Amino acid sequence: MKALLITLSLGLGLVTVSAHADVDEAMNKAGCMACHSKDKKVVGPAFKDIAAKYKGQDVTAKLMEKVRKGGAGTFGPIPMAPVGPDKISDGDLKAAVEQILKS
Question: Has UniProt tagged this entry with the keyword Electron transport (predicted)?
Fold first, then answer.
């Protein structure tokens, strides 16, 4: 029984790592990483700073809309260009925003 639990735990960990890698790949393909980083400001804010700003808030839909429409002012004057579904699918965008909010 203990071996089964360990095996299941390891398997779930691999699924989580794989899903995380898929989201990272989608963000790279969409161009997100050209302006953002996980832990430091590049052109746009670091993902950890986005997570801190919205901690405890249900903002996934709001941030998805912000990515789709683009904008400026929340983290400074530099505008973020809109990112359409041709760059990142709605499903990948939702997973990316959820991952960023967990940073």
Answer: yes
- CATH no., domain 2-101: 1.10.760.10
**pLDDT tens digits, the chain, 103 residues: what are they?**
555 344 445 555 444 445 567 999 999 999 999 999 999 999 999 999 999 999 999 999 999 999 999 989 999 999 999 999 999 999 999 999 999 999 8
Q: Measure the CA–CA gap between 47 and 8, rounded to whole angstroms.
A: 31
Task: Report the C-alpha gap between 69 and 53 in whole angstroms.
Answer: 20
Domain ranges (residues) in the chain: 2-101
Whether pTM exceeds 0.85: no
Question: What sign results for the dihedral spanned by CA atoms 76, 89, 31, 95?
Answer: positive
Q: How far apart are CA 99 and CA 88, in angstroms?
A: 15
CB 41 within 8 A of CB 49: yes
- Angle formed by the axes of helices 90-101 and 60-69, nearest 10°: 120
